[in-house]
Design goal:
0% strand; mainly alpha; 7 helices
């Protein structure tokens, strides 16, 4: 077995060269994606339990939850060639979840059920579950699958607020990075200039 050899002229201490298409993807590790997946899974269960399956509301809520999740993934994948598109898609994910939040608030209002305040002990308990290291849909499943409509809807409201908080923070970071480094066009210009 021959050892790996460095190419001639390579130095161990040399900084890696900038790539035209940098590493991208990895959205499964984003907390915003993980939370949006929980919201999506919980929304499917909620809608199947409490909303007529053939109704337009059922379909729209599931699609809004799906859009939140899918646009985070698509934005992450496209970031290698378009930071601008990544920003746009994460913004679409955020808007989809805001639409879904309004649906849950409407359900509570139309059913005459209370919307828990952020200081309600039940809301604090739901929010506290985010710190569990093994957090997944199963962390919240009893609240959604066996809870009454008030508990299930308010659980989703809490989850959506947490996800939107993460997306707002992600959008600020993406904006700062885009302003500081530019996108694909600027990277292409720099690399072409370096090779001249």
């Amino acid at each position: 077995m021959t050892p790996n050899r460095e190419p001639v002229g390579a130095h161990a201490s040399a900084a890696p060269a900038e790539q035209l298409i940098p590493p991208h993807g990895g959205y499964q590790k984003l907390k915003s994606f993980q939370m949006s997946e929980i919201v999506y899974d919980a929304t499917i269960v909620f809608c199947d339990r409490f909303i007529e399956k053939r109704s337009r509301t059922h379909d729209q809520m599931v699609q809004a939850a799906r859009s939140g999740r899918q646009n985070i993934a698509e934005g992450s994948q496209t970031s290698g060639t378009s930071r601008k598109m990544e920003l746009k898609l994460v913004g679409v994910a955020r808007a989809s979840l805001e639409e879904l939040l309004l649906d849950y608030q409407d359900i509570l209002r139309h059913k005459g059920l209370p919307l828990w305040s952020k200081d309600d002990p039940r809301a604090r308990e739901v929010r506290g579950l985010v710190y569990r290291p093994d957090r997944s849909y199963r962390t919240y499943s009893a609240l959604v699958e066996r809870g009454d409509p008030e508990t299930a809807a308010n659980t989703l409201v809490c989850l959506i607020h947490q996800t939107c908080f993460l997306l707002d923070r992600q959008l600020r970071q993406l904006e700062e990075k885009f302003l500081a480094e530019g996108g694909f066009t600027e990277r292409l210009f720099r690399l072409r200039k370096e090779r001249q």
